Structure formats: C-alpha cells, structure tokens
Amino acid sequence: MSATPTSDPEKKVEVFDEDDAVLAQLGYTQELKRSFGLVGMVGFSFSIVTSWTALSGVLIIGVETGGPPVMIWGWLAVCVFTLSVAYSMAEMCSAYPLAGGQYSWVAVLAPTSWARGFSYICGWFMLIGVIAMGATNNFIATNFVLGTAQLNYGFTIERWHTVLCAYLIALLSMISNIYFPHILNKLSKAVLAWNMLAFVVCLVTILATNDHKQSPKFVFSDFQNFTGWTPPYAVVLGLLQSAYGMCCYDAPAHMTEEIKNARKQAPRAIVMAVYLGFITGFIWLIALSFCIGDLDATATTATGVPVIEIMFNSTGSVAGASALASMISVICLVASNSLMAEGSRSVYAFARDQGLPFSDLLSKVSSRRVPVYAILLTGIVQMAFNSIYFGTVTGFNTIVAVATQGFYLSYAMPLLARILGHFSGKKTKLEGSYSLGRYGIAMNIIGFLFLAFMCVIANLPSTTPVDSENMNYTSAATGLIMLLSAVFWLTTGRKKFTGPESGQLLEVVS
Predict the structure, then answer these.
(1) Which pTM was predicted?
(2) Burial annotation 330-344 (CB, 10 A radius, 16+ → b, else e)
(3) What is the CATH number of the domain that holds 347?
(4) Which segments of the chain have a pLDDT < 50?
C-alpha cells in the first residue's frame, strides 16, 4: 500500500509502513483506507461517547432512581473506575491495533488452551453491544427529534412514531457509510467543534435563563425514588444511567485499521474521549439538576425527553428550548452514523476471522474501501432491536441494558484473559507505544471487578411490581446470545474461527 504524497513524504511512508507491517505480522492484509488522524479520531470517539448528550438521552433513568444525588455522585464513581478500564484497553490497543478490538486481545492474552473459544464468545458480545448501542442511539436521536416536534405542535407521540423514525435514522446512517465514507474524518472533526460549542451554548443558556433554580441540598443530597424498590436498590439501578453515559470508548480500537500511526493515536483517542466525557458529563449533570423543575412532571413530560422539559422550564420559551434540543439532535444523528461505522468494522473484523455465518460475504470490501455487507447487516440488526419497542413499553430500557451489558462483558473479557494468563504463567508483554508498565495488572483487576458489578446491575428489573410489560429481559437476551455463540461455535466456529497471530511485535516507533 503506497502513501499519498505530502510535504513530508518520507515520514508519511514510514508511518504507513509501520501500521501495515504490524497488521501483516498479526496475519492480516491492509484493506481499509487510513484517513484518520488524532483530532479526527478523538472527534469520532467523542461523537459516540458524548457523555453529556448520552446522559441527556437516558436522564429518565436517573430521575426515577435516586434523582440528582445519585446521578452526580454515581457519575463520579463510574468515571473513576472507567478510567482503569480505558487505560487497560489503551495499552492493549497499542500493542495489538486491530479492528477486532476486544476479541482479538482475548485471543492473544488468554491461556492458550481456551483462548480461541473465549475470544469467540467475546466477539459475539462485542457485536451485540455495539449494534444494540447503535439501536439505542437511534432511539435517543428519535426522541429528541419527536420531542422537539411535540413541544411545538402538541401531538401525542406513539410508539410506532418512535420506531419508524429510528428506522429512518438507521437507513440514513447506512447510506452515509456506504456512499460517503470519505467524509467520515472531516465530519468527525466538525462534530467535535459542534459538540463543544453546543455544550457551552446549552449550559450557559439554561443556567442564565433559569430564575427558579433548585437548592444545593436538592441537587447534592435529596434522594428521590419513583421505582417502588428500596432506596439501596434504587441507587444501584441509578448507576445504569452513568454506565450507559460512559460507554463506547473502545470505538478507536475498531477503527485502528483506518488511523494513521495507529499504535500511538488510537490509545490516545480512547483515553482522551473518556476524560472529555467525564468532565462535560459532570458539569452538565450538575447544571441540569439545578435547573430541573418538578421531578414527577419532568419524568412524565409529554415530549418523552426530560432534558427538553428542563430546557423549556429554564428558558420559558418553546423556540429557545427547541433550538437547544436541535443542537443536541445534530450530535445524536452524527453519533448514529459513527456507531454504524464502528459496528460495521467490528462485523467486518469478526467475519474476516470466520466468526460469523456467511463470513466471506460479510468481510468483503468494496471499491470505496468500505465493508458494504457488514454495514448492511449492522443496520438491519439495529432496526430489529428498535422493533422491540413495538412489543413492550420498557423496550428502550431493555435495549439500553443489553447494549451496556454487551459492551461491558466484551470489555471485561480481555481484562480477565490477561489476569488469568498472567497468573497462570502466560505473561504476555504488551509492547506498544502506550504502556502501563508494572501498574497494568492492577488496573486490569480494578477494571474487571467494576465491569462485573455493572453487568449484574444491567439484569435487574427497574420497577415493581414486575410484570411482562416492565420486565427487564436483558438476562434472557444474554442467554440467547450465549446459546447462539455456543451453537455456532460447535457447528462451524471451532473448525473455522481464526484470530491474530501472537508473537513479538515490531519495535515501538518514536
């Protein structure tokens, strides 16, 4: 693969050769186009993580399960532990910069006797997590669009409105990823600037216009519980909002084969996105809590989006609240496009390793150098997840939980693989540009325990009494995923599934 001429062609060729040589040493051929730099990848990653808008989209969970104190202090706790996971993943990504991300790391780091099987299961959870997260974001973007329309026109939002609008967003993301892949880097840079601008505008506006703010006591200590469960249980449930808000920071790992100087820049993008999300999410949650009106009215707003109700409560203006909500809508729509890209690259990588039915088809790359069939499958499965909302009123919460658990399980598995490998004698040295040194295993253990705890929470029912309408079906979905992965492993996976070739990587490039 030749590099595009630049003002410094020798340096450019060296970077490209290093990226491609690492990929070749791991057993793969460079097929995707390397167009991302650090700024573009941070923008891409933050467009997905975008904690302040993600928290806005699932604010209803926090409002009902503890209120402002749980949202704020829970966010701090979740973010601190998330950093241990992000640093661990950044180190692995630097050593093994592959689009397969988590499952590829498991294949290299786990004890040899069961590395392939464990990697295969991790790959399935990774795919379900990223695709379900795309479906969740389609819902969030839909909710902001329909909520803004409802604020202006006063109609009743039906479930079929939400599902059909989510379908449309998925279709637009599919079309964009197939026909306009060349704009992804530029779009990511633009949305990073838009993201920060929207954050400042929305923050300053609600704080400046709201003349009836809540007291510090209400914000930082008054516990609210609308779940029917006991307070400790409600607090634990409330952490799911923060867990969802701080997710998807593995995105750069799945785009490593499209990043220049991937071993350095992808790990940096992972960690930078978490810090950006941490800070913006914390400030935004405090501002929302001070500006929130009646909690019951906010939770049951006709717009379906508590944040829009808070904006309207603060500004007292339909036009003002609509303008702010529209700024967030743009971010959510771009996030849908980015999640489609991340999801399709994950499908492509897993199919390239013969991890899926019809793998040869799903791993094909078009003349535009994008995996078209992987994009189509990602979009179709996202729409299938969105269809759950037709059948249950808690469909949104269920998909949030499925997405969060899928991601968190796929995050936990490489950490567990390295821990078990380390203590069983397979002490794989991670020799990338981004190394934690002697602190690596400690970070892995802390991160794993945190992820395991959050995976348990994701399966808990959110309201009581529990019935078929409000049941949390995450455990059933998880069981189905495990069953499918086991069936495919026994029938085809154990014979065909491959993974990266482990061994000594290249010297670190300075």
Answers:
(1) 0.86
(2) bbbbbbbbbbbbbbb
(3) 1.20.1740.10
(4) 1-16, 503-510
